């Protein structure tokens, strides 16, 4: 017989298909039988009032799974109504549901040579998933094997043409994707600018105007109804006539937020007035060309082109436009940048169409109206006890994952028919990894070092080389992708570019040398098989944020990111948490040659201080190994860019990563990052300057707003004439006065505040106690108490103190045990919020944006707190005659501390709208370590 299209039968009637090799499993032994399973209770409480919002008892997980990973999988991925027999209660059920669909589909479509190969595929997938060696992206866990549409893709790219019908279709398609819990991106550059005419003779609205409608739609739908916002990307080409308006759109909205906040409106995340702010539901990126970047470099003019004719309708100074991009990013982190010519130079399917856009996090870059499903490998699972990398098993696992991911496209459902057609015709995959930062630290490699970059480059090259080699093998069994024939020459050219980059990789040590040697073999075999068979997949690899699935795998670091901090908090069975030093650190110290006694001393020091500076016995040349994304020894911005550049030549897609800059960074620093990203061959880049967003108010360094700082500066200018003023008189407190003592905790630091009032009216004295008696902090707080008390007695209004000290930032900071003030940016921030709640009337506090829990609840219900008697009773100024000295009891004990007590970062990261925990960066997005919710992909 001749071969069928599927390749399942060959001449002689023999069954054709892949031969599978065992990696971790044993013949005749089911992978579940080698695991010790245990039952747990998962109970999640509401962060606002402590009530239970999720409860499932007796769930089953392997004993080595952390409490956090089990909680996230139970709440996020188990299907069926809670409390019904249909509800999944074991990780076995979840994995069986997903892997069962993959295995059945593979059998039905002739992927494997024998029943034995089918069993190996099934068992190896189950073993790898339950042992947290890799994970599929979230839509797989949500949908596969259920009655819902079998959507497996997390990333979508849409297309919009210059017609009203196409624009309305865009709104509709985005809404469908968001409703399914995924994200999408789109390039609006085909839409005529506001400087061009319509066929009717009128002037076009321009793409920015249509962004308003899409933004409102996304804000209403949200992403799956669960996360902080819908995940979307909007791209505009740098030669579009409306590019300047696009660049400044979000920065202007940030100015609006600041003005409204200062006017007393509730502009907190989730506040009732924040909905008036536009363009907040998308990441914006400018698509720049090599022509533009060269014009910037040379200081030349650059032409903006009409959309329909392509003619230049306006000349602009390229350097000036580039600076406006950097200035907007400096102000509000948007827009990001995408390098168009670099992206399309690595495009495997250019005969079908150009790559014009990306998914929300910028790692998936391919054809319009297409999608990509993701999977990420946990690199720490391949670090052997002798600190060598398990190259052989990494190769086998990559083969397994690529096979499974390709199978998923065969059974997958898609939100639109256009996306279905493109994805089935090009079969884009997105294999990636997580825990690179932990792997580098554990093996004694600094993240920002030649050695660290060599390891990252070698691993990425090996992963992509194996992926495309397996894709060529799949093409021999089930055929190449439908669009391969018209793009064969281009696809093979890109494969040679990858292989050439691998040849140019310079290795440093034994570890990366061995990985690189295997990568070279894989690329050689890939080119040979691809020439013979073609390829099954137009795209194979990228680096995603790995937010929720990174937590599912108990990864210390996400995607390509370095470690966030040296100290973390571990959830405990039964609730609460404990502070632990990263377990990677002792392993790294052993690798660097330290003895156990020194390791214990260094770890103890890190646990107390949160960093390694001046740690006893630690050599200064080893400090860099423990550098993190933020904190005392933060990795320099260009260190992030160089790491991205080390991995980018070996990826089909791009990298979801934000280059973090300190608050002190300049616009010129951002310009340099953007320019170096282009020179080093990156495909996309985003930046974030600490505290640039107005989600938490900006400060001028001393708690005053920038506007206040300017006015104070003007007031400080010398005047010619001398004005005599009356000297204030001090109104001393009586010997007997009513007072209230409040015990509080901020970021794990405990303190006491005693506030005394005049018998007739008003606060007149405050005493603060923190830390041990005789310590520097205790002395400073005593001195501050005296200074403030004297100020109050000389007539300084309390609201003046509050306006100056609220939002002041320093450590300790983070969660408090006060239900009215859940988060504080410092002890001062907490103290003056509490004093305002206790001693200022509602109207004055509202102008400062300070509300009690009861008042916020009333606002969420649409009620007016000012006429809520219960709220007013709780928030009214203390009547001196009615107050007796007391220590108020907190509503509930807060057992979970915050990392910010040891770090200086993400003060303006959003709170998770599901559980209230401060989120942390994951690629270009944010992830909640408490419940697994994300603001982006996977």
UniProtKB/TrEMBL annotation:
Catalytic activity annotation: a 2'-deoxyribonucleoside 5'-diphosphate + [thioredoxin]-disulfide + H2O = a ribonucleoside 5'-diphosphate + [thioredoxin]-dithiol
EC identifiers of the protein: 1.17.4.1
GO molecular function: ribonucleoside-diphosphate reductase activity, thioredoxin disulfide as acceptor
Keyword Nucleus appears in the UniProt entry: no
Biased composition (Basic and acidic residues): 705-718
Keyword Nucleus: no
Domain Ribonucleotide reductase large subunit C-terminal, first and last residues per copy: 153-688
Domain of life where this protein originates: Bacteria
Key words of the record: Cobalamin, Cobalt, Disulfide bond, DNA synthesis, Nucleotide-binding, Oxidoreductase
Pfam families: Ribonuc_red_2_N, Ribonuc_red_lgC, TSCPD
Function (record text): Catalyzes the reduction of ribonucleotides to deoxyribonucleotides. May function to provide a pool of deoxyribonucleotide precursors for DNA repair during oxygen limitation and/or for immediate growth after restoration of oxygen.
Name of the protein described by the UniProt record: Vitamin B12-dependent ribonucleotide reductase
